[in-house]
Design a protein that fits this description.
Elements (H helix, E strand, L loop, with lengths): L1 H23 L1 H8 L5 H23 L24
C-alpha cells in the first residue's frame, strides 16, 4: 500500500513539474498534446469536400428553370427585351 501511495505522489509531483514547464514555455504544452488526426479522418474530409464540390458544380449545370420567361405569372405580359410598340 505504501508503494502505491509513493507512486501516486511521484506522479503528482511529475505532473506539477510538467505544468510549471508549460507555464514557462507554452510551446511545450502543444508539443505534448498535439497529435495528428487519424488517416481515416483525413480521407473522410477529402471525400466530403470532393462530394460537396461535385454537387455544387452539378447544381450549376442543372438549371431546371431555363424555359421560364421574364414574367412572373402565366398570363401574358410584356417581355423586358420586347421592342414592339
Amino acid at each position: 500500500m505504501m508503494d502505491s501511495i509513493a507512486l501516486a505522489k511521484a506522479l503528482e509531483l511529475q505532473s506539477i513539474a510538467r505544468e510549471e514547464q508549460w507555464r514557462r514555455n507554452e510551446d511545450l504544452f502543444y508539443l505534448d498534446y498535439a497529435r495528428d488526426p487519424l488517416p481515416f479522418f483525413h480521407w473522410l474530409g477529402r471525400m466530403v469536400a470532393g462530394l460537396r464540390d461535385r454537387k455544387r458544380s452539378m447544381k450549376k449545370a442543372d438549371r431546371l428553370e431555363t424555359s421560364r420567361s421574364a414574367c412572373n405569372s402565366n398570363d401574358g405580359c410584356a417581355q423586358a427585351a420586347s421592342s414592339r410598340m
